[in-house]
Fold this protein.
Amino acid sequence: MKQGEIYLVNLNPIIGLEFGGAQFVIIVSNDIINASFLPVTVVPARDAADGPVPRVTGVYVPSAESGLAIDVVADCLQLRALDRSRFVDPPVGTLSPTKLKDVERAIHFAVRV
């Protein structure tokens, strides 16, 4: 598992407004953590056709910059740590370095204190 890789995982069970079901997630934790036994930190990404990009905390990722078959929106407000057991399949895409930087900026805004 590497930072910037995109996986399809099952995020159930959920509560309230959390993303649930089968979702794309982008690994955002650093590769030292990703190489360990610790949970990995991810940002869920939904189909861009499902609605507008959230202001400031959303990042539009075209398929040409991810390797996915569809354009997605990374919702950096939904930052979450996942147990490795949720990752049963290989990655389905990878963010471009430019888009990874955009995601990092949106996360910084979402969690800035």
Observations:
- The longest strand covers residues 40-47.
- The chain has a mean pLDDT of 92.
- DSSP finds two helices and seven strands in the chain.
